[in-house]
């Protein structure tokens, strides 16, 4: 391309950066990103996403630099807005950071969900968050709320998939409630039986 005096585009750099990541070469991905900027090629959201992904592949992950790049993208005007893939790359960096804290990943997820204009959620975002919650041993309630939020956000409310999922949810809750009720009765039954026996013995004349 350069021999033919053709200027490489952001898309061409993105393809090369993606190839570097596939071959586990994050430093080469960094070099391509810097070379693109040096040539005056305006990075696209895909270039930023790949650059942040490469920082996540470092050991340990370069989360400070990832934040700098993300903030720079947020402040730039006349640029395509940040999308879910950009946040996914940042959450991946936070997942690999040391020391690890699942709350950082969770707060990043919440920031994406509350951002205006609204960013359409991708299921990959939830999978990254789910992995962080499991890694950090977050509570079951927190994990359920994250799953429910992602499920509602990524499912068309008027679709059969949503209706089917809602019915399955109701059925699971009903089954769990029935099992808990049965176990409670089973645990209390011996106690009530013994009390009845004691009461009967006290009534009988000695």
Question: What do you see in this structure?
Answer:
The chain is mostly helical and 206 residues long. It has two domains: 10-156, Serine Threonine Protein Phosphatase 5, Tetratricopeptide repeat (Alpha Horseshoe), CATH 1.25.40.10; 157-187. It is built from nine helices and no strands. The chain is elongated, with a radius of gyration of 27 Å.
Q: Any idea what the radius of gyration is?
A: 27 Å
Q: Going by CATH, what is the homologous superfamily of the largest domain?
A: Tetratricopeptide repeat domain
Query: How large is the share of residues in beta strands?
Result: under 5%
Order of helices and strands: HHHHHHHHH
What would the CATH topology of the largest domain be? Answer: Serine Threonine Protein Phosphatase 5, Tetratricopeptide repeat
CATH-level-2 architecture of the largest domain = Alpha Horseshoe
Give the helix proportion (percent range). over 70%
Q: Note the overall shape.
A: elongated
Query: Structural class per helix/strand content?
Result: mainly alpha
CATH class of the largest domain: Mainly Alpha
Number of strands: 0
- In whole angstroms, the N-to-C terminal distance is 108 Å
Poorly predicted sequence stretches spanning 5 or more consecutive residues: none
Figure out the total of helices: 9
Overall pLDDT level = 82
| Major sheet characteristics | none
Provide the number of structural domains: 2
Q: What is the fold's blueprint, element by element?
A:
Layout: H1 10-22, H2 26-38, H3 45-57, H4 63-75, H5 84-95, H6 102-114, H7 123-135, H8 140-154, H9 160-203
Helix pairs in contact: 1-2, 1-3, 2-3, 3-4, 3-5, 4-5, 5-6, 5-7, 6-7, 7-8
